[in-house]
Amino acid sequence: MRKPIVANQFYPGKAADCEAEIKEYLAEGALPAGLPEKIAAGIVPHAGWTFSGQLAALVFAAIKKQNARVDTFCIFGAAHSYYGPKPAVYDSGLWQTPLGEIAIDAELAQKVLKAGPAVTDTNAHRGEHSIEVQIPFIQYMFPKAEILPIITPPADEAVELGQTVGQIISETKDKQIVCIGSTDLTHYGPHYGFEPMGQGNAAFKWASEVNDRQFIEMALKLEPKKMLDIAAKNYNACGPGAAAAAVAAAKKLGKTKGVLLAQTNSNKITTAKFGSPSADSVGYAAIVF
């Protein structure tokens, strides 16, 4: 059993509060026209729900609208503090959140591990929040679904992993599996030590409209290797391996383009919700394939 580590910090610690907040996000977010007929994968942000919860909710709402059912979510997480050489699979057992327990798809885990691009490492997940913050959305909207959490470093193995998972999904006829890649975008400002365009609104605009968009465009064009390269060069994603794996899986499953549901940043949200700008800003995007 993996216990929650960021409940009461990144999202509410009580079930009723989680449900109320998710309902609020679902009511606020409007899905665009032109969604894929069936969604194979998505990219979600993983900040505190106050900042990125609405965008994460949009992705899961789109999946629920377009897919008759989802049996398993294969969730590629960012590697904030994991430095292992290969993606780390949480291969069995349960995860717990304020909304209860959710099971690991052990059968899918074994197929992924047997294919070779990942290793079993449940300890790697102990301190990682990028997957955990997605789980209550799944529990609320897909109560029968299972999960396969995989921490995915920004290396070539991420693309191989996504391709492998996509191939496994294409060969799996008895369950419906959707891939999720968890990443935030440019971390800009003095707190992050990244200020190539100085400070203020013009700098935040550059971070969002130029730096973030470079990564987003490569995702929309299903270019997972270029996503890794751009992130390494321009520091415009903290989970590029996770996002690239989801894109590689979608590409393997025949997808040819993505749909951007929404894009924002924490400075915009801080200004709108609290009335004052911040010295720092983090970018967020919601994308489906």
List the defining traits of the structure above.
289 residues, Protocatechuate 4,5-dioxygenase, Chain B, alpha/beta, 11 strands, two-stranded antiparallel sheet
Polypeptide structure, described:
By secondary structure, this protein is an alpha/beta fold. It has one domain: 3-Layer(aba) Sandwich (Protocatechuate 4,5-dioxygenase, Chain B), CATH 3.40.830. The chain has helices at 15-28, 49-66, 106-115, 135-141, 156-171, 201-220, 224-234, 240-252, 266-274; strands at 41-44, 72-77, 88-89, 94-97, 100-103, 119-120, 146-151, 177-182, 187-188, 259-265, 281-288. Strands 1, 2, 3, 6, 7, 8, 9, 10 and 11 form a nine-stranded mixed beta sheet that branches. The protein has a two-stranded antiparallel ribbon with strand order 4-5. A hairpin with a 2-residue loop joins strand 4 and strand 5 (100-103). Helix 1 crosses helix 2 (49-66), helix 5 (156-171) packs parallel to helix 8 and helix 6 (201-220) runs antiparallel to helix 7 (224-234). The chain is globular and about 50 Å long. 51% of the residues are buried. The mean pLDDT is 97.
Radius of gyration based on Cα positions: 17 Å
State the shape.
globular
Q: What is the helix fraction of residues, given as a range? A: 40-55%
Distance between the termini: 31 Å
Q: What is the class in the CATH system?
A: Alpha Beta
Number of strands: 11
CATH architecture: 3-Layer(aba) Sandwich
